[in-house]
Amino acid sequence: MKEDYIKRINNILLFIDDNLDQELTLETVAKIGNYSPFHLHRIFKAITNENINEYVTRKRIEKAASILMHKKEITIAELSLQYGFNSNSSFTRTFKKFYAISPSEFRKTHSNKFSKIGKLDSKNGQENGIADEYICNINNHKNWITMKAKIEIKKLPKLDLAYITQIGHNGMQNAYSKLIKWATPKGLLENEDLKIITIYHDSFKITDPDKVRMSACISLKEKINVDGEIGLTTIESGKFIVGHFEIGIHEFEKSWSGLFIWMNENGYKKADRNPYEIYYNNFNEHPEKISIVDFCIPIE
């Protein structure tokens, strides 16, 4: 796939992210990438394995799912209208195709996952069993965080980044290899303040792992000219929960889950920005394959 195609598709992906509550016709999106609708349809599917309509619908439903999990004050009717569905029933039918349950059931289920332990109320033995399992799981994550993480609330600075887009988690090592190969002859890795960062544009809780979009990034002293599939992006300064971990690769998921539980248990709300990881070593060079990493959750 030509690098220029990927660069233009990156611009389209960013445009879609920022305009999920607007009308996103094939013609509108094609103009952003300077494609004809016919060519965009073909190239977009080749890169993302979804056509435009499928991708936009999925992103809208996933955005709605995230709001259902984190913002109880927004009604299902408001979400349906905001993301372009003709009716609540249309929204519910589409939502069920992705999650097999209705939006209201999804909200109830996932609100319980992140509610405080003391709010659980059981009325029979079966529910007590579910509650006991839930409490055990939550307590395991809380104990994990207590043992493994140093957690702080910080205002983090603005970061200018060069990045490569990766769709699907299995390709991240290859994405970083290409990024490093591009950056090395330019001397960009000699920056003493260099940061290696992964930005998560989707959540593994609501998006299939092979469709999760991530950005493999390096920080820049200043913006530079880029070409091909290398793009430029910025993480704006803001308030973050920062969890510092020294963990194995297989422990990342548990650490992220624990940190989000800590966030909710302590009354913080995730902001409408993307979480990211900052790496401080190459785990392959560590004798015990340990990764030293900060997990950063933007908060309101």
UniProtKB/TrEMBL annotation:
In terms of InterPro entries, this protein maps to:
AraC_E-bd (IPR010499), GyrI-like (IPR029442), Homeodomain-like_sf (IPR009057), HTH_AraC (IPR018060), HTH_AraC-typ_CS (IPR018062), Reg_factor_effector_dom_sf (IPR011256), SmbC-like (IPR050908), Tscrpt_reg_AraC-type_HTH (IPR020449)
Question: Which terms does the record give in the GO molecular function aspect?
Answer: DNA-binding transcription factor activity; sequence-specific DNA binding
Boundaries of every HTH araC/xylS-type domain copy: 10-109
Keywords annotated in UniProt: DNA-binding, Transcription, Transcription regulation
**This protein's name:** AraC family transcriptional regulator
Presence of keyword Magnesium: no
Q: Any keyword Transcription regulation? A: yes
Q: Which Pfam families match?
A: GyrI-like, HTH_18
